[in-house]
Amino acid sequence: MNAIQISTWYWLSLGVVLILAEVFLPGMLMVWLGIGACVVAIISTFFKLTLLTKLFIWAGVSGTLLALWYKVFRDNDSTRAGRAEATLGYTGHLMRAVGPHENSSVRFARPILGNDVWECESEIALPQDTLVKVVAVVGREGRRVRVMPV
Q1: ∠55-56-61 over CA atoms, to 5°?
Q2: pLDDT, tens digit, for every residue of 99-133?
Q3: CA atoms of 138 and 136, how far apart (whole Å)
Q4: TM spans, by residue (predicted)?
Q5: Domain ranges of the chain
Q6: I want to staple 34 with a disulfide (CB 3.0 to 4.6 A). Which of 15, 74, 142, 149 is the partner?
Q7: Is the pTM for the entire model greater than 0.70?
């Protein structure tokens, strides 16, 4: 039985098609698979590789790039801070009193980004159960909001 040989041009074409497919599909997955296929095309121009070796190289390069994408770029705290800006303008009740340079928690009537309780701070002293409005996201992590009385 003859081994299946896939030409370098097929790998390069596959890489270009996958990279172009990223324009139409969300999620940044296809671009990494396409770059992996292009790397296989480049390596196979210099070395004679079996199909299994090419598949392992493609999976390894694509998997590594995908893991780096999620670790370095997607798991970034500034991304969470950007999403936390969705809390701006919402109102909630303070769970305990808060003052300048003190932290408290605010409870919203419905969950925002999966949480109905958020850490908060205020520039002025406010008693417990005060109705407050979110005016800013504090810190790079985006895990705390600044509140003002309504």
Answers
A1: 100
A2: 888 889 999 888 777 778 888 999 999 999 999 99
A3: 6
A4: 6-24, 55-73
A5: 8-75, 79-149
A6: 15
A7: no
